[in-house]
């Protein structure tokens, strides 16, 4: 094994401290985001979770990427879709029958009692238990399951895109104008 030591890292660090009237104050009160320019690594330690990812771009190219990366792309890099989305799943199932409004209404009525379902296993087992009319017998329910990113990951991405990215752009502008 070879271990290297870097005594002169090229890290740009951003600290975030929400104040009480900020929209995200109760979701994420603080955070530190490090952009390792030499290695193309974004790492964050925040009140709404810890996140990291390494890109092949380095130096200015990495900073330009971080200044323009969109929310969905960043979410895909730092998090996985693991939260069961009950509403999204129900909408997918109902949309399968878009040409049969009466059947859609029967399904909507059927799904009105699904507030207590917490995960896909609850959902699938409760359908087996409650679907006495075989409304969903011909559907591959596994194909209809919808998952979403954890709300904390979404909060971090919102902080990154709305607060950190403008600061990265300011930094790039100062660097361009030799004001650093």
Radius of gyration: 23 Å
- Sheet with most strands: strand arrangement: 1-2-3-4
Distance between the termini: 38 Å
Structural class: alpha+beta
**Secondary-structure element pattern, one letter each:** EEEEHHEHHHHEH
In terms of per-residue confidence, which ranges show pLDDT below 50 for 5 or more consecutive residues? none
Mean pLDDT: 91
Shape: elongated
Number of helices: 7
Strands, total number = 6
Q: What is the share of helical residues? A: 40-55%
The proportion of strand residues reads 15-25%
Subunit organisation of the chains: single chain
Largest β-sheet summary: 4 strands, antiparallel
Description:
- The structure is a single chain.
- The mean pLDDT is 91.
- The strands form 2 sheets. Strands 1-2-3-4 form a 4-stranded antiparallel β-sheet, with helices on one face. The chain has a two-stranded antiparallel sheet with strand order 5-6.
- It has 7 helices and 6 strands.
- Helix 3 (86-96) runs antiparallel to helix 4 (101-111).
- The longest helix is centred in the C-terminal third of the chain and has 26 residues, at 151-176.
- Helix content is 45%, strand content 18%.
- It is elongated, with a radius of gyration of 23 Å.
- The chain has 180 residues and is an alpha+beta fold.
- It has helices at 59-68, 71-78, 86-96, 101-111, 120-130, 141-144, 151-176; strands at residues 11-17, 30-36, 41-46, 49-54, 81-84, 147-149.
- A hairpin with a 4-residue loop joins strand 2 (30-36) and strand 3 (41-46).
């Amino acid at each position: 094994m070879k271990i290297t030591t870097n005594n002169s890292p090229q890290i740009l660090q951003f600290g975030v401290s929400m104040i009480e009237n900020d929209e995200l104050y109760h979701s994420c009160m603080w955070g530190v985001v490090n952009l390792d320019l030499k290695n193309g690594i974004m790492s964050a330690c925040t009140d709404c979770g810890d996140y990291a990812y390494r890109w092949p771009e380095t130096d200015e190219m990495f900073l330009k990427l971080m200044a323009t990366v969109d929310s969905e792309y960043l979410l895909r890099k730092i998090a996985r879709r693991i939260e069961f989305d009950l509403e999204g799943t129900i909408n997918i199932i109902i949309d399968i029958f878009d040409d049969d409004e009466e059947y859609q209404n029967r399904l909507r009525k059927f799904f009105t009692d699904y507030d207590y379902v917490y995960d896909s296993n609850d959902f699938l087992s409760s359908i087996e238990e409650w679907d006495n009319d075989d409304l969903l017998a011909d559907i591959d329910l596994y194909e209809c399951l919808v998952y979403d990113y954890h709300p904390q990951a979404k909060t971090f991405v919102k902080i990154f895109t709305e607060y950190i990215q403008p600061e990265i752009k300011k930094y790039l502008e100062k660097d361009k104008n030799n004001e650093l």
